[in-house]
């Protein structure tokens, strides 16, 4: 599969940069790239998203402890990947980029947009601070560690017991029969059973989780690298299982048009009994709903490859990437990375920000009860593969479009397989 941003792509895009104006410090380009006493950080840690206030606080602490360093923060949202690539073509990129491993970023180290950091992880004495599985997830097939792992996530199912009990459901479902029966009872009371953003990444992740019901982790990794959903018996069975649940009324009405915002609103306002929620979403559940909510795994059906209801878990939500500009001021970058890996700094993201970490910590998100519960699920649930690092970057967005097709009532399993495979042909 071709990377969407190979070296030729960088050169072609660079030809048009003369017409691109310089952007402000809260956008993209910066005029501080060549200043050895200035550290430019580019991240998505803006607004009030879980962990963002903590990030701003610890950066300010770093400033106070290092008055000889000027720290500039660049903030972008979902467009960070494109903004960074454009700034890199202008040789005006930030020194450190804090972003997840997904879509565009998968190819950055391969094409030289960022540099491998394995040598720095060892040279700076930080390897023992990182959860070993996080190192594995951030390492590409050529053995290059793409970035310093930092934030991870648990991704369980949240169950609102108050709504379940109102519908006469005594406990969260753990099997497909129980899930379908619960959905029927909930609908009888006018309650949405399982809300999901079927028109964005949340639906794509849930669909991937359900498809893996009949797949081993190795089979799942192969499937999401190659996209042969028709050639895999396990994938065929998983898609058929999804269709059975959809047609039984398990998912929200018009799920194919819902987004993650709509999903969380439905759950947080007590209008839906279940949702698939990563830790950042769990951290935003209001107190009145938290009190009646538990977390667990997605129900299984007969013949499943897993032994326990499943969750997703990943260590690739955010890491610190070093750019070519950053290599020109490594002592400054090292001071910042070492600071961010201090135990007391890492713990603040857990206790204050409600985040799961890819760095070793014993802290629990006690001020975010659902996040803490998810952190303690351990062996009570099974775990399936988050497909993000295996899906070819060019197929990522087309797969979300295919997900909307999957959640559309009446769409057959065969049509869903075709839509998913078409997303890979675009790559």
Automatic annotation (TrEMBL):
One Pfam family named in its UniProt record: SBP_bac_1
Entries under InterPro entries matching the protein: Bact_solute-bd_prot1 (IPR050490), SBP (IPR006059), TAT_signal (IPR006311)
Keywords from the named record: Signal
Residues making up the signal peptide according to the UniProt record: 1-24
Annotated protein name in UniProt: ABC transporter substrate-binding protein
